[in-house]
Design brief:
The protein is an alpha+beta fold and about 500 residues long. Among the domains are: about 140 residues, no CATH class; about 190 residues, no CATH class. The chain contains 22 helices and 15 strands.
Length: about 500
C-alpha cells in the first residue's frame, strides 16, 4: 500500500465555509498579489492541526496541540503567519502563545464548531480533499516525508514487525463508521471537541489512510489502532470476523516481577532478555543495576514477596488495603461519597491536577505507575505511601535505575544545577519507563507475536501496546500460547484477560 502523506478528509460544511471565505478574501486581489490565499494551504493547515491533535491526544493543553513553527513554515512555504492569522480571524482556529519558560511551541486547535455549533456526526458529510495545485502537493509529499520520515519509519517497522504491519490496511481491517458515528453522537460524556477528534480517528480508517511506525523511544508499534480511542475498537472487524484482545494483567509490574525472578534463578536468561532492549542507554543501566545487586537472603525474600503480589494477588488491591487510614482520609472526596480525588500528574499539562477516581483500586493503579515513572526526588505523600508498602529491595531497584551522579548537585543556592545537569537528571528519570516499555515491546512484538505468525500464518493479528488482538475463534489458542511463553521466558505464571470487542458493543448499544 502506498502511503499518501497529504491525505485529507474535511467536513463538507467546513469546506464550503472555507472556500467561500477564501474567495471573498481574494476577490479584489491580483493573481500575483502576495496577500492572495490558496485553498490548498488553508485546508492542509486545518487538517494537520486536527491530525496532530489525534496523534498527541494525551498531550493536549486544554484541547490545543503544540506544533513547531519551523516545520509548519516549510509545509506552507514560509506562509504560516499569513494563514494562521487568516484562519484565526475568520474563526476556523484558535492558538495559545509560545511558552518561553518551558520552550513549548505555539498551540493550535480547531474552533470552527465553536462558532457554527456542533452538529450530529451522522448528519455531517465528509469528503476527501483533492489538491488544486499539483506542484504544491508534491512539495508537501517531499517535505512531510523528509521531516517526519514516515516512509523510512514504516519500512523500519516492516523490517522488524512485518508479521504485524502486513495486516494494517483496509483489506484486513474494517470499521462500521455509521454505528461509530451514532455512538459518538449519543455519548453525553464526550465534549464537542472530543466528538470531532473521535470522528477524525474513525475517518482515517474509513477513508483508508493507514500509517504505522516503530518508536525509537519505547520501541512500541504505533498505528491507527493505538491512536483510536479504546471506546471505538468495538466497531472494528476483520472481514466480518469478531475480534478479541488479550492483555497481560498488570503488564509492566508483571514484567518487573519476571526480571526479579530471573535475577534470583537465572542471570544467563536475563542477559539474553537484555538483548531485546532497543537502546544502549537502557541496556547499560540494567547492567549497572544488575551488577550492584547483592542477592542476600533479605533481598531474595523482598523480590519473592513482590513476585507473589503479582502472581497470586492483585497488586492494586494490596496497595489499597495497606494505605494508612490517615492518608485515605486526605483523598476521600468531599462531595461524592465512596469516591476519591487527588492531585495527579497530567502529562498533557505538565503538572498535577485534581483528578477524581470512582474507586480506590483505580487510584492505586495510577499511583503505582506514577511511582514507577516519577523523580526519585519527589516528596509527594502518595508516593511515600507506595514506597512504604513496597518491599525495600524493589524500591532500591527502581531508585538505582533512575539515579545519576548529577543528583548530588543541589537544586538551589550556590553551585546549583546547570541546564546540562538538569537534562541528564530528566533523561535518567525516564530510563526506568523506557526499560519496561522496551522490554514489553521486545517480548510482545519481537518474540510472541512473531512466533504466533509462524504457527498460524493466516491468522489476523494486531497489537495495541501490551495487548494482542485476534479473531474470536483463536482466543483460547492464543491465550494458552501467551501464558506458556511468558512462563518459559520469566519462570512465573501470568494472568491473561480477554475483551470481546463486539460483545461489549452489543451490551452498550442496548442503552442507546
Amino acid at each position: 500500500m502506498k502511503y499518501k502523506n497529504t491525505f485529507i478528509t474535511i467536513e463538507q460544511e467546513l469546506f464550503d465555509r472555507l472556500e467561500q471565505t477564501i474567495e471573498e478574501h481574494n476577490l479584489h486581489l491580483g493573481g500575483d498579489d502576495e496577500n492572495k490565499l490558496k485553498m490548498d494551504k488553508a485546508a492542509f493547515l486545518i487538517d494537520h492541526i486536527r491530525y496532530r491533535q489525534l496523534l498527541k491526544k494525551d498531550k493536549l493543553v486544554h484541547g490545543y496541540v503544540r506544533l513547531h513553527s519551523a516545520y509548519l513554515n516549510i509545509y506552507l512555504e514560509k506562509d504560516l503567519k499569513k494563514y494562521k492569522d487568516f484562519l484565526k480571524r475568520e474563526g476556523f482556529i484558535k492558538t495559545i502563545p509560545y511558552n518561553k519558560e518551558n520552550n513549548k511551541s505555539i498551540g493550535y486547535k480547531i474552533s470552527f464548531y465553536d462558532k457554527s455549533g456542533y452538529k450530529d456526526i451522522q448528519k455531517k458529510k465528509f469528503m476527501v480533499y483533492e489538491f488544486i495545485d499539483f506542484d504544491y502537493e508534491k512539495h508537501l509529499n517531499k517535505n512531510i516525508e523528509k521531516l517526519a520520515e514516515n516512509e523510512r519509519r514504516k519500512k523500519s517497522a516492516d523490517r522488524s514487525t512485518r508479521h504485524l504491519t502486513k495486516w494494517l490496511n483496509s483489506n484486513n481491517i474494517q470499521i462500521d463508521w455509521e454505528a461509530a458515528f451514532k455512538w459518538i453522537n449519543s455519548n453525553k460524556k464526550l465534549k464537542d471537541s472530543q466528538k470531532e477528534s473521535y470522528a477524525h480517528a474513525v475517518n482515517r480508517i474509513r477513508f483508508k489512510n493507514w500509517y504505522y511506525v516503530r518508536s525509537t523511544k519505547d520501541n512500541r508499534l504505533h498505528s491507527n489502532l493505538t491512536n483510536l480511542p479504546s471506546e471505538l475498537r468495538k466497531f472494528l472487524s476483520h472481514k466480518s470476523q469478531k475480534l478479541v484482545s488479550l492483555d497481560i494483567k498488570s503488564s509492566q509490574p508483571f514484567m518487573l516481577a519476571g526480571v526479579f525472578n530471573l535475577l534470583i534463578k537465572s542471570k544467563d536468561k536475563l542477559e539474553l532478555l537484555k538483548e531485546k532492549l532497543k537502546c544502549k542507554d537502557v541496556k547499560d543501566k540494567l547492567t549497572t543495576v544488575m551488577n550492584s545487586i547483592i542477592l542476600n537472603s533479605k533481598t531474595i525474600i523482598n523480590f519473592k514477596a513482590y513476585i507473589n503480589l503479582i502472581c497470586k494477588e492483585d497488586i492494586y488491591n494490596h496497595i489499597a488495603g495497606n494505605l494508612s487510614p490517615n492518608f485515605i482520609k486526605t483523598i476521600e472526596s468531599k462531595t461524592n461519597k465512596d469516591t476519591y480525588e487527588d492531585m495527579v500528574y497530567n502529562q498533557a499539562k505538565g503538572y498535577a491536577v485534581e483528578t477524581p477516581f470512582k474507586d480506590i483500586r483505580t487510584y492505586c493503579k495510577i499511583l503505582t505507575l506514577e511511582y514507577m515513572y516519577s523523580s526519585i526526588e519527589s516528596a509527594k505523600k502518595p508516593l511515600k505511601e507506595i514506597k512504604r508498602i513496597y518491599p525495600t529491595a524493589v524500591n532500591n531497584f527502581i531508585h538505582d535505575f533512575k539515579y545519576c551522579k548529577e543528583l548530588k548537585v543541589p537544586i538551589r543556592g550556590k553551585g546549583k544545577r546547570n541546564k546540562r545537569q538538569k537534562l541528564v537528571i530528566d533523561a535518567s528519570k525516564k530510563l526506568f519507563a523506557k526499560f519496561l516499555q522496551q522490554l514489553e515491546a521486545g517480548i510482545i512484538l519481537d518474540t510472541i507475536t512473531k512466533e504466533l505468525s509462524v504457527s498460524y500464518p493466516t491468522m489476523f493479528m494486531a497489537t495495541i501496546h501490551d495487548s494482542i488482538t485476534v479473531p474470536k475463534e483463536y482466543e483460547e489458542i492464543v491465550k494458552d500460547f501467551l501464558k506458556r511463553r511468558l512462563f518459559e521466558i520469566f519462570g512465573i505464571e501470568s494472568e491473561i484477560k480477554s475483551e470481546d470487542w463486539q460483545k461489549k458493543n452489543k451490551i452498550k448499544n442496548r442503552g442507546l
